[in-house]
Write a structure and sequence with these properties.
- This protein is mainly alpha-helical and 115 residues long.
- Helix content is 37%, strand content 0%.
- The protein has one domain: Cytochrome Bc1 Complex, Chain D, domain 2, CATH 1.10.760.
- The protein is built from four helices and no strands.
- The chain is globular.
C-alpha cells in the first residue's frame, strides 16, 4: 500500500486559486511579496514532508537526485510543471497533495537556501 505525501498547512498565506501562476508570487518584488518570509517558513515544512526524502535536507542532494539549489534550468514554469506532473525518472506528481499556494511556498524555501 503506497503512502501519499502529506499536504501542507498554508494558513496565513493567500489562496492563490486554481489558475496556474507562471511566476512565484511570494518572491520579493512580485504580487504577494509581503508574504515572502512566511512562505519560506511554510515552504520549509512542506519541503521537509514532501521533498527532503529524495532531494535531501535543505535541498542538498546526496547525489542520487538533483541538488535543487543548483538547477539553473529551474525557472518558475519548469518548476511548476515538474511538481504538478512528476518526471519519467521517478519523481511523483504532487498535484493531488499540494495546492498552488503550497507549491510556491516550497519554491520560496528552495530559493532561500540556494547560493
Amino acid at each position: 500500500m503506497a503512502m501519499s505525501p502529506p499536504g501542507v498547512d498554508t494558513q496565513g498565506l493567500p489562496d492563490l486559486g486554481e489558475a496556474p501562476l507562471m511566476e512565484n508570487p511570494f518572491r520579493p518584488g512580485n504580487q504577494h511579496d509581503e508574504y515572502h518570509e512566511l512562505a519560506v517558513q511554510i515552504g520549509e515544512r512542506g519541503y521537509a514532508g514532501n521533498c527532503a526524502v529524495c532531494h535531501g535536507i535543505q535541498a542538498m542532494s546526496g547525489g542520487l537526485t538533483p541538488d535543487l539549489r543548483k538547477l539553473e534550468e529551474w525557472d518558475d514554469e519548469f518548476y511548476l510543471q515538474r511538481v504538478t506532473s512528476g518526471t519519467e525518472q521517478g519523481m511523483p506528481a504532487f498535484r493531488e497533495n499540494l495546492d498552488q499556494t503550497a507549491m510556491w511556498a516550497i519554491k520560496s524555501y528552495i530559493e532561500s537556501v540556494s547560493p
